[in-house]
Automatic annotation (TrEMBL):
GO terms for molecular function: L-serine ammonia-lyase activity; threonine deaminase activity; threonine synthase activity. This is Threonine synthase. Residues 72-376 form the Tryptophan synthase beta chain-like PALP domain. Its EC number is 4.2.3.1. Keywords: Lyase, Pyridoxal phosphate. The lineage of its organism: Archaea, Methanobacteriati, Methanobacteriota, Stenosarchaea group, Methanomicrobia. It comes from Candidatus Argoarchaeum ethanivorans. Its cofactor is pyridoxal 5'-phosphate. It holds the Pfam family PALP. The keyword Lyase applies. InterPro entries: Ser/Thr_Dehydratase, Thr_synthase-like, TrpB-like_PALP, TrpB-like_PALP_sf. GO terms for biological process: isoleucine biosynthetic process; L-serine catabolic process; L-threonine catabolic process; threonine biosynthetic process.
Length: 414
């Protein structure tokens, strides 16, 4: 007996065994993992979760794996911070942050990768791979190293140096494509056809892979004493993260771990690459964008795989979508660091700037208990951020030089 029954097409309902497959043979719709909810309800409990590991694997009963041999570097079960100062700054009474910059490879992608590489081992594949805007690549490199599998990683050549160094250090095979993420992803899709015994975790393993992000909802609810917030805000690139967070809360209601509740879900994308947010704002179809350029490299996907569904989740929940400019994204990074001591990369800046916009424009009410997901670490984007900061002064190591500086530069300390 297992908790996974198979895969099912989101569009036409066609069912498939739980193999390596992401698209429906009949209509090309996306496939989702189907669970045996009766089985899960019998096995899951708050006590069992509390006695589980201090990682996302404490929620294994809601994840699509069969064995207990998790490829686990310790991702997840991150602290839910009560963000009083940021709350005051943006005008919210009760604001919380899940800080994903502290995961093993410093982004939320460790959740999806940990599930997908565990699944790759179960399927007995020869190698893993992905197309990535940077964080997924680094995370896959780390988890593939832990699992002893080779990793083939396709990235746009223009992403931040910090991410490229990180991917290389794990020994991954890095293919830097002279083009956008969408072009790298298309190429990776062609490579899969040549290597059917490789698992490209966000392409042919996508149904299993996206499930890892549900744990963000699970651990938020657990730390809110098994209750749900009123409003969540997440960054969007493919839209997969936002959809998984919404699904995570729904599943907790389905198995009876939290009470039924309407939760509003809002998203944020950089204005310069915002196909999903623009579709929400204009209430129109998600139209792919080309020739985009933003400092939020990790969110720069012009043709989002789950854009249509992310828009539906946002609109049906009563949420909205923000589109901060690159300057506002930088301000968001500075604001979070200075109010809460959390250093995030531009994806996190997009979320914080988006949160601010949504409150200012009345899409989040000031009394709503709000959770914001900060998904990546600022140290990965030093090349972008250093030039936005007041530079340090260099002095000779004497007290008189310091005092001179203090007198001359009073404003500097102010
Ligand atoms: C730090 C960070 N946050 C958010 C996202 C968006 O995730 P998704 O593609 O699931 O929407 C990404 C995607 O790469 C990311 O790297
Ligand atoms: Zn179908």
């Amino acid at each position: 007996m297992t908790r996974v029954i198979g895969l099912k097409c989101r569009e036409c309902g066609a069912e498939y065994p739980a193999n390596i497959q992401s698209k429906c043979n009949k209509c090309s719709g996306q496939l989702d993992v189907q669970y045996d909810w009766g089985y899960i309800k019998e096995h899951i409990s708050k006590e069992k979760i509390a006695a589980g590991p201090n990682s996302m694997w404490r929620y294994a009963d809601l994840l699509p794996v069969e064995t207990g041999n998790y490829v686990d570097l310790g991702a997840g079960y991150n602290k839910l911070h009560h963000a009083k100062h940021l709350g005051e700054a943006v005008g919210l009474k009760e604001l919380y942050i899940i800080d994903e910059s502290v995961n093993p490879s410093y982004s939320f992608k460790d959740r999806v990768t940990s599930v997908a590489v565990t699944k790759s081992i179960e399927f007995g594949v020869k190698a893993v791979g992905c197309a990535s805007t940077g964080n997924l690549a680094a995370s896959l490199g780390a988890h593939a190293a832990k699992a002893g599998l080779p990793a083939y990683i396709f990235i746009p050549a223009t992403i931040e140096l910090g991410k490229i160094v990180q991917i290389l250090i794990y020994g991954s095979h890095v293919i830097a494509v002279d083009g956008t993420y969408d072009e790298a992803s298309r190429l990776a899709g062609e490579v899969i056809k040549l290597h059917p015994d490789w698992a490209f975790i966000n392409l042919n393993l996508r149904p299993y892979y996206t499930e890892g992000s549900k744990t963000l909802a699970f651990e938020t609810a657990e730390q809110l004493n098994w209750s749900a917030p009123d409003h969540c805000v997440a960054p969007m690139a493919s839209g997969g993260l936002l959809c998984a967070i919404a699904r995570g809360y729904q599943e907790l209601m389905k198995v009876g771990l939290i009470q039924q509740k309407d939760i509003r879900i809002s998203g944020s994308q950089p204005l310069n690459c915002s196909p999903i947010s623009t579709a929400v704002q204009t209430n129109s179809a998600v139209v792919p964008v080309y020739n985009y350029k933003t400092i939020a490299h990790s969110l720069a996907i012009g043709n989002p795989a789950e854009g249509y569904y992310a828009k539906q989740v946002i609109q049906s929940s009563g949420g909205y979508a923000a589109t901060p400019t690159d300057d506002e994204i930088i301000e968001g990074i500075h604001l979070l660091a200075r109010t809460e001591g959390i250093f995030t990369e531009p994806a996190g800046g997009t979320t914080i700037a988006g949160l601010k916009q949504l409150v200012e424009e009345g899409y989040i009410e000031r009394s709503e208990k709000t959770v914001v997901y900060v998904t990546g670490n600022g140290l990965k984007a030093q090349d972008t951020l250093f030039k936005t900061l007041k530079q340090p002064v260099t002095i000779k190591p004497t007290l008189s030089e310091f005092e001179k500086l203090t007198n001359d530069e009073e404003k500097r300390w102010g």
